[in-house]
Amino acid sequence: MRSSLNTNESADSTAIVLLSGGLDSTTVLAIAKSEGFAIHALTFRYGQRHSSEVEAAKRIARHAGVREHHVVDIDLTVFGGSALTSDIPVPKDRDLEAGAVSAREIPVTYVPGRNTIFLSYAMALAEVVESSNIFIGVNALDYSGYPDCRPEYIRAFEKMSNLATRTGIEGKTRLLIRTPLISLTKAAIIRLGASLGVDYSETTSCYDPGSSGEACGRCDACQLRLKGFAEAGMEDPIDYATAGGPARDSRRPR
């Protein structure tokens, strides 16, 4: 890892992008790239149920031509507490329509502390490479109800970051947490990504994919993704599983 920028770069021209390999983070990467940033992509192997998202992130970062792609190993399975980091079953076929799920109901796919941990790593990397921008693909509309995706959380973390870093205290750099998707619907995100040339066939969103990586089509992430593509008037290019069968065309999800 570099300890400083090239001489022709500045804190305002460099960005850290949290890249999970999913639809939202890939769109955010495209936004940061379109704005001309030199990008350090940051991906976590944190003990999640499957490695397909890490492999997707590697492909996406490589094709995007990022400056560096950092893949960090941490182990959130030591705490568990989530369907993504323990043996708790992933919920399927939940009704996610407005009003069907209580705003106070946090699903078991929420990973305790995950965004705070990820953003803390991003904050540290930003200080080392002297970047003033961290991009994260959180969304407060079409999302599963996670508390660490809300605007007030992001504002609080940004304030804390500028109190917790040497560059912030010395006034060299003011760290900004950039959330370009936070007020967009999933359909609007997909349209925006498509306009920027995002290849969504490289992305993965499913919480519980099959052995070949095909999406289940029934978890919250799959339902929100499919709804977004339908409302955008586009076909989702990834494969979805049939009931007990092989992968099939995503235009006909269960």
How would you characterize this protein structure?
The chain has a domain at 11-186: Rossmann fold, CATH 3.40.50.620. The protein is 32% helix and 11% strand. The protein contains seven helices and seven strands. The strands form two sheets. The chain has a five-stranded parallel β-sheet with strand order 3-2-1-4-5, sandwiched between helices. A two-stranded antiparallel sheet has the order 6-7. α1 runs parallel beside α2 and α6 (186-195) packs across α7 (220-232). The N and C termini lie far apart (44 Å).
Q: For this structure, what is the CATH homologous superfamily of the domain at 11-186? A: HUPs
Strand percentage, roughly?
5-15%
Helix-strand category = alpha/beta
CATH level-3 fold name of the domain at 11-186 = Rossmann fold
**Within the largest sheet, what's the order of strands?**
3-2-1-4-5
Number of strands: 7
Summed up, the helix count is 7
The arrangement of helices and strands along the chain is EHEHEHEHHEHHEE
User: CATH first level of the domain at 11-186: which class?
Assistant: Alpha Beta
Question: What is the 3D shape?
Answer: globular
Mean of the pLDDT scores? 88
Question: Low-confidence stretches at least 5 residues in length (pLDDT < 50)?
Answer: 1-8, 243-254
Rg is 18 Å
Specify the helix fraction band.
Answer: 25-40%
Largest sheet: 5 strands, parallel
Q: Distance between termini?
A: 44 Å
Which architecture of the domain at 11-186 would the CATH scheme give at its second level? 3-Layer(aba) Sandwich
